[in-house]
Design goal:
The chain is of the alpha/beta class and about 400 residues long. It has a single domain, classed as Luciferase-like domain (TIM Barrel, Alpha-Beta Barrel). Helix content is about 50%, strand content about 15%. It contains 14 helices and 13 strands. The chain has an eight-stranded parallel beta barrel, surrounded by eight helices. Strands 5-6 form a two-stranded antiparallel sheet. Strand 3, helix 3 and strand 4 form a beta-alpha-beta unit. Helix 5 runs parallel beside helix 6, helix 6 crosses helix 7 and helix 11 packs across helix 13. The longest helix is centred in the C-terminal third of the chain and has 24 residues. The protein is globular, with a radius of gyration of 23 Å. It starts with a strand and ends with a helix.
């Protein structure tokens, strides 16, 4: 199973550990960071969404017009635009990028954040709206005939777009969440399901929940799985752990050591807090104090160690069925370079070896199949072919 790497497309240089020194949207920094990812083996970068932050679709169009290979994951909240308008925006961006777009739909896990841009629906209503929204966008991407729609949240007549994506039949849809409602929507609609980094056992449980939701929705396929981490790497284990403790100290200093983090509303953040309260270290390299220091804010659990240790930890997740690995350091530029130079090649090489070994084993098993079994298989196929011929003639 091939592996892909997702980085961050920040438009400014600040992070949880470092104050911003650029404008909120800095053209030079945005392009420089993206080129670092493209030049160091990353597959795509995420344009995140936040109320008051630079509009990510415009920033993504800027990047797409300057880079030729790097793919784009665009975060989008359904409350900020009508789905037919959004579908045209995404199709146009896919045209600008030459077919490099994936759209990540965010339902919204914090009432206050949603209300900043006029969204006063309840969480359950937001999930209902998101599912309806994604369905409309998918149809607008693929329907060349006018169509009507009447649902709980949207109503329109006779819509047909004049701009369609490069990717056929459509760009991929990405989705995430850790609640029952999230699994239901993502299991039904997502091509990629996104999780935050948790211990291996809990990640395996979530993957199974996603697959169960896909089956419950009547799908014959399942979403690909993406898991996100904050890698902290150094040449030795000792230096990596020193760096990790400096990172947490910087996070606390930036947030204000005496200012308690508000209790999170979304299930994913609550899970991160629960994991952090139960222990600091899990499995090969997972470390939770970074999540605890941020109040479980988003992608915040770290992987700590040498490049070899972190690479092996990522391979453990790949063995669970994770094929998209999201990583973002705290020094956005330098950490993207180091991760690309020292971690990505190890993971890619090992995945290629495992895939080759698996393919060789399958070929060997097929070659060693008893002649009788092979004849039976051939007879069964011939029978199916005759049945199909009779059906056609009938």
């Amino acid at each position: 199973m091939p592996v892909e790497f997702l980085g961050i497309a920040a438009t400014a240089d600040g992070s949880e550990t470092t104050p911003r020194t650029t404008a909120a949207f800095d053209r030079d920094y945005t392009l420089r960071l993206a080129r670092v990812h493209e030049d160091h083996g990353w597959d795509r970068v995420l344009f995140a969404y936040g109320a008051g932050a630079p509009e990510p679709a415009a920033a993504a169009a800027f990047l797409a017009s300057h880079l030729d290979r790097l793919q784009i994951l665009l975060a989008h909240r359904p409350n900020v635009s009508y789905p037919t308008f959004a579908a045209k925006t995404f199709a146009t961006l896919d045209r600008i990028s030459g077919g490099r777009l994936t759209v990540h739909f965010i339902t919204g896990g914090n009432d206050h954040e949603q209300q900043r841009e006029g969204d006063f629906l309840t969480k359950d209503q937001r999930y209902e709206r998101t599912r309806e929204y994604i369905g409309i966008v998918k149809r607008a991407w693929t329907s060349h005939e006018p169509f009507d729609h009447e649902g709980p949240h949207y109503r329109f007549n006779d819509f047909v777009s004049d701009v369609f994506p490069v990717q056929q039949p459509r760009p991929a849809v990405s989705f995430g969440g850790s609640s029952d409602a999230a699994y239901a929507v993502g299991g039904a609609e997502a091509d990629v399901y996104c999780l935050w980094g948790e211990p291996l056992a809990r990640t395996a449980e979530q993957i199974e929940r996603v697959r169960e939701a896909a089956r419950a929705a009547g799908r014959t396929d399942v979403p690909r799985i993406q898991v996100a981490f904050r890698p902290i790497i150094a040449p030795t284990e000792e230096l990596a752990w020193e760096k990790a403790h400096r990172t947490v100290a910087a996070i606390r200093a930036r947030r204000g050591a005496d200012r308690p983090a508000a209790a999170p509303e979304n299930a994913g953040s609550r899970r991160l807090i629960e994991i952090a309260e139960a222990g600091e270290r899990y499995d090969r390299a997972l470390w939770t104090p970074t999540a605890a220091a941020t109040g479980g804010a988003g992608n915040s659990n770290a992987l700590v160690g040498t490049p070899e240790t972190v690479a092996q930890a990522l391979l453990d997740y790949h063995d669970l069925g994770v094929d998209i690995l999201s990583a973002r350091g705290y020094d956005l530029l330098d950490d993207a370079i180091d991760f690309g130079r020292y971690v990505i090649p190890i993971v890619r090489e090992e995945v290629a070896k495992r895939d080759a070994a698996k393919a060789a084993a399958e070929r060997t098993a097929e070659a060693e199949q008893p002649a009788g079994d092979a004849q039976a298989t051939g007879d069964e196929q011939a029978g199916r072919d005759r049945h199909q011929l009779v059906a056609v003639q009938a």
